[in-house]
Amino acid sequence: MQYRTRNIYLIPYAVWIALFVIAPIVLIAYYSMFDIDGALTVGNYRRFFTPVYMGMTVRSFWYAFLVTMFSLLVAYPTAYLLTKTKHKQLWLLLMIMPSWMNLLLKAYAFIGMFGTYGPVNALLGALGIGTKQILFTEFSFIFVAVYIFVPFMILPIFNALDELNPSLVAAARDLGASGWDTFRRVVFPLTINGVKSGCRAVFIPALSLFMITRLIAGNRVITLGTAIEQHFLVTQDWGMGSTIAVFLIIAMGLTMVLTGSGEEGRQHVK
Amino acid sequence: MSNSSKKPGAAATIYLAVVFVILYAPILYLAYYSFNSGGSMHNFEGFTLEWYGEVFQDTRLVIILLNTLAIALFSAAISTMIGVAGAIAITHVKSKQFRSALLTLNNVLIVSPDVIIGASFLILFAAMGVRLGFASVLVSHIAFSVPIVVLMVLPKLQEMSPTLIYAARDLGATRWDVLSRVIVPYISPGIFAGFFMALTYSLDDFAVTFFVTGDGFSTLSVEIYSRARQGISLSINALSTLIFLVTLVLAVGYYAINTRAIEPGRPARTGRTGRVEAGE
Fold it and tell me: How far is residue A107's CA from residue A101's CA, in Å, rounded to a whole number?
């Protein structure tokens, strides 16, 4: 009886896994071995290791790294200070709220704000710096990406800080540690898991952004995500697109291993 | 920062205020100019509601809005059903390895970048000969919402004592009775949270939809993308102000459910670009 019960519930779920988790990965790997004319080849992989694609990969990783780092630099103090506020859950909700708004609309807002006649340039003008080209630069790309990802970094760090036992901090201070020492030796190590999951939540999506690169960076920044989109939807070279996707999946797996994805499993499997 | 361990000082308050203002600036900026009769996002000439009127007169936009809502509601409902079944199936599995294998497979779509999901689903639909349009978008949204429903429901199932089910069976309940009268009522907060998450995932999605939508069909995100590429139009501002208000209502609703039922104050959702860290 028990066995039959389990089977019934497992059927729709197993179908979902087979169709939308396993099949897509297999198909990506399969398509990566065909060229644009449908002939079997390893040419896509050879092409991936040429300077053009390697350079793009390296730059893509560099941008993702910068975005992750700046997000962390902004988010950690924010999360830390949030835990000190009086109604911290409410403040957290207010900080997270903008991230619930449609991403496209925020990108669209930045087009207006960073434009030649936008408020940012008006401010620069008022400060005597003069108008600058902000939109379609690497700066605007990184700024908007950080803007979008910061809430996702705040959340896990906030949770980690919130769970931190305050008596540990008090003990460190009593034993003569300076504020900085306490942070470096006690607070930060104890919240490292929050930092890790924050980095994981930012790094992988940052590696594969493509909408912002088009709208904000005006194709000046080409990430792995942009390249995949280009191959699939513009040049129709699905083979090369799949090859890049294969490497993105590998990068994703490595990121998960490096930042310790085991925690999720631990929480849910008793 | 480190010496403000007791009470936040002035510097801390300023820092938080600056972050706060920057986070809300784009939204307020859009909302402010949605009332501009000047027609641009830099010269506020006078107050008007003209753009709001335009949103509702734009039949194409209204149809797209309805499509988006239909996709969101259907995909949330169906993915909730599959997700609940999946969560029940996972708790029924005895073997530890099999269970963690299922969980790993479950989390693949949560951590995958949107571009990969979109591209691989596009290949999948092409391989199966599915025409791109409403159906392909709906199926994709169901597919990427299932794992988050599972993650929302699973903790509720795990904290449920199996004796409840034994008792029901002993008292003569059929399997269907056990599901509908014991399990589902017990895990309903998790189901609601999962449904809400699936709804917001669907409403928020751009990248996956962008890949699997054909020529004839469009959702709001895709439409905004193509309009934004053409330049600025204040009816988008008006629309975004309306959307923000709806989002606000959804957020408060979700938060209310979440704080009451799941875990106090943990809006676990992190949106489709930074897909969730549901585990954390």
Answer: 11
